[in-house]
Amino acid sequence: MARIKPQALLNQSKKKKGPSRISISTIVVCNLVVAVVVLSLVTTYRHWSQSDRVLILMNLLCVAFQDTNAVSQQKNYDLPGYADISTSKGLITVELFKDASPEAVDKFLDLCKKDHFKGMPFHRVIKNYLVQAGHSSSSIPIEEWTAKGKLRGRLDTSPKHEAFMLGTPKNKGNNKDFELLITTAPIPDLNYQLIVFGRVLKGEDVVQEIEEVDTDEHFQPKSQIGIISIVLKREL
């Protein structure tokens, strides 16, 4: 077998291919791909993280709202829902609209605790219309009173302003002016002048007896009639 000379081996090794080189453009493209992938992962993480935060915040708000609503409902449940109005003509039991007229009911309850209505006279009695208790010195005839509402086009009907409803005049600035009215007939022309916050459950005959008293030309009773006391009740 013939031997290969050293010179021939050297020439043969020179003919072998050297290692292939990676171009700069390929490196740049690879780096860009890696950067895009990393950026996508970071963006996805932030998105889901932000979504989780929003979800947690919404859950916290829902829980807080439910707690507030529960407290409000518990407060309304704890408040008295009825009142016994003792008058010089007899007892009138009323139901209070705690949900429909909460502000008026709260004010009424607060004034009851302060004995605001104790000894309050019925100073206006209008047959087939209403009886009104308060300390007002107003002597405006009913014709003028109702005419104001009619001139303003306030003739809308409302089921809240039917007979034997408990209310108070609107636009009363302080507790001293808080008066009580009990309707004895529907009064649509006073829809915008009264806040109805209750209704008579028992004692309609007492209201009618007050309604039948003799009055002067200003609809003020000739004999003294008034509220003796008011007792608040949670149940009948």
From TrEMBL:
<dbReference type="InterPro" id="IPR002130">
    <property type="entry name" value="Cyclophilin-type_PPIase_dom"/>
</dbReference>
<keyword id="KW-0697">Rotamase</keyword>
<protein>
    <recommendedName>
        <fullName>Peptidyl-prolyl cis-trans isomerase</fullName>
        <ecNumber>5.2.1.8</ecNumber>
    </recommendedName>
</protein>
<feature type="domain" description="PPIase cyclophilin-type">
    <location>
        <begin position="90"/>
        <end position="232"/>
    </location>
</feature>
<comment type="similarity">
    <text>Belongs to the cyclophilin-type PPIase family.</text>
</comment>
<keyword id="KW-0812">Transmembrane</keyword>
<dbReference type="InterPro" id="IPR029000">
    <property type="entry name" value="Cyclophilin-like_dom_sf"/>
</dbReference>
<keyword id="KW-0472">Membrane</keyword>
<dbReference type="GO" id="GO:0003755">
    <property type="term" value="F:peptidyl-prolyl cis-trans isomerase activity"/>
</dbReference>
<keyword id="KW-0809">Transit peptide</keyword>
<dbReference type="Pfam" id="PF00160">
    <property type="entry name" value="Pro_isomerase"/>
</dbReference>
<keyword id="KW-1133">Transmembrane helix</keyword>
<keyword id="KW-0143">Chaperone</keyword>
<feature type="transmembrane region" description="Helical">
    <location>
        <begin position="21"/>
        <end position="42"/>
    </location>
</feature>
<keyword id="KW-0413">Isomerase</keyword>
<comment type="function">
    <text>PPIases accelerate the folding of proteins. It catalyzes the cis-trans isomerization of proline imidic peptide bonds in oligopeptides.</text>
</comment>
